[in-house]
Amino acid sequence: MNEKEFERLLLSVQKPGRYSGGEINSVIKDKSKIDVRFAFCFPDTYEIGMSHLGMKILYSQFNAREDIWCERVFAPWLDFEEVMRKNNIPLFALESRDAIRDFDFIGFTLQYEMCYTNVLNMLDLAGVPLKSADRDESYPLVVAGGPCVCNAEPLADFIDIFFLGEGEEVDLEVIDLYKEHKKNGFNKAEFLKAAAKIEGVYVPSLYEIEYLPDGKIKSITTKDNAPKTVRKRIIADMDNCFYPENFVVPFIQIVHDRAVQEVFRGCIRGCRFCQAGFIYRPVREKSYEVVNHQAKCLCESTGYDEISLSSLSTSDYRELEPLLNNMLEWTEQNHISLALPSLRIDNFSEELLEKIAHVRKSGLTFAPEAGTQRLRDVINKNVTEEEILSTCKTAFEGGYTAVKLYFMMGLPTETDEDLKGIAELGQKIVDMYYSMPNKPKGKSVSVSMSVAVFVPKPFTPFQFEPQITKEEMERKQAYLKSCITTRKIDLSMHDSSTSFLEAVFAKGDRRLGAVLESAYKKGCKFDSWTECFDLQKWNEAFSECGIDPDFYSLRKRDYDEINPWDHLDYAVSKEFLIRENKLAHADTTTPNCREKCSACGANCYGKGVCFERR
Amino acid sequence: MKFVSHLDMNRFMTRLVNKAKIPIWFTEGFNQHAYFNFAVPLSLGFEGQYEILDLRIIDPAYSNEQLVADLNKESIPDIEFVKANEPVLKMKEIAFAEFKIIFEEVFAEKIERFFAREQIITQKTTKKGGTKDIDIAPLIKKAELSGNELTLILTAGNENNLNPTLVLSTLFELEQFKAEYSVVRTMIYDKKMQPFI
User: Fold this and answer.
1) What pLDDT, in 10s, does the model give residues B125-163?
2) How close does chain B come to A256, measured CA to CA in Å?
3) Residue B174 sits in which domain range?
4) Within-domain flag for B1
5) Residue ranges of A 334-363 with Cβ closer than 8 A to chain B
6) Residue A451 burial (CB < 10 Å; 0-12/13-18/19+)?
């Protein structure tokens, strides 16, 4: 397709900047000097994918190698997909505009379950057969990484290789192996067998699953000497691991349109519902000098006037004080605003608030997750009501008048009392505001409460737990609504059909591959977008494939049942998860990693919080 | 950079002046930001060859040549800075803009007939969301066709700004045809038809 024709097509769709490429810091290479071409695919829109830190890291790291050209690919929005299909434009990479069908690797990052249909759609748009078994040596290898890989069994039929854990090292090892195999006549089956020997590489076709008559898994066996369990990879030394010196800076506005500086990986807290809190263990920090230096480089190379610190719980960073002191020196001078997301309520100090107040003021968001102390103990969210109230008080005194609180509904052992607690907590915050003699003058308070439906996830102590039914959710939502009596509280409870599907795919097995393909063929895509999600089509797909979704999501699983992900090792042992599940049912909390080790198994890497001096 | 809207262009500039470490004046309000102003926004899908940007340098020793060099060093190939000088005219003295419109095919007869009209009535959407009839003929200072290339000089600036898209859509409507075309803004003029500086 010639340039003019392409430009005209772009001008016929919304936000052509999603597809035009040419952004500052995007990498262009000479094709003739490249051995491996890698299409890094984010199965959602440009604005979402471009906000993702992992993609920025790997994009820069791959491109730092002279023999690799890594390019970006995003899911085209509906309007452009239509244009592409009508004009026979195959899915292309933004940098070269070449069809990714001719690349060596097509790599997906799987950040959430609801993107799976987009993965299939992108393969189809690329002109690549969906199933791994239908792709011979003439097609690119299709690989995937990201958190969903901890149970990506529903995608097992479609993906050649999954990367478990952090990709910085393992991805390049596989690319090097590929280069070697390409020299001696490439054979896909041989290559996959060899790749499976690399730690962190999971080749799903080398594993066979047998089922019991009741539908549960009977056994998981390996073929061709593939390892019985695959352990995730981590980067042990964060100070010396690769971090990009620049980001591609988009023209169009993206979701997180700022520089992002990683501070540490993992989380010490162990909130029992939180998958990230378990699969990224152990906690590994960067030193504040490194963070400060990298952050400064990023701002200089991108020109961003906003930078945010990224981690699962930024206030748990041990060197936050010196870091902020160092960063504020140059951020203030250069009119750069500093954002600190993911702060915890219990260690949100006045000094910290003052430091944030130095720069731009946005809203304050907290996540108590549950309405009563009992339920917060069950989920191991070690935050007390006093802490929540005193934090809000500090914030109000600092001039804030709006706070946002996140909760979950349908948590294990939840009763109506716990739901009522959500409403009561909101009321207490409102009352506290009006009782303050030094409250911001002439301003009303606004407490926004957002309540999501709990989705049990693999590798958490709640992986054994069922999700609540739709009927139960509706009843709970109506009840919670009735508990709220003030207009100062803005309660939002989203339609949660996607949460139910999310639970099915999070805990599903590879038999769901057929459902995925069927739903995709019926037109399901962008399932995380309410305007695209079509529950009706999904229900049809399930019934056509003879699969009951409730089997996966609404069933309490015994501790000794074989889960579809039991052959994957994320360095948290099943024994530990069972112990934690039992403690949850006894309303008992577990201390965080810095207070006391709970022997989850993550110390096997010999690094991180497990070896900090206490 | 056809696919960059005016807002995107503003964001691009904010980052470019940061990246190039330009000693630019920052606004002093609640939300401090680098201050600059594009004289006439360029529509999405148009190319521009003579775009004007106003900004204030706070370092007296910083030369205009240095400014241009520093910006170009950090910019992308499609956005090039040509020249910097002290403002001679005020922004409100912008009066006309010249566009080059290239059609995929030659439609000489229809185009010439259209621009020969004494009155060209079209509908313009008003700020309130309604539409009103206006005559755009007086706003078209020049329309010259050479093969498939049409040169238009239209009134520009804060008042009576005429967008070529409106001219072309009216052309297609009144002369009942449709054509693919591309637009390049080639010049911005003052009242005396001198290049705006």
Assistant:
1) 777 778 888 899 999 999 999 999 999 999 998 888 899
2) 14
3) 91-190
4) no
5) 334-335, 360
6) buried
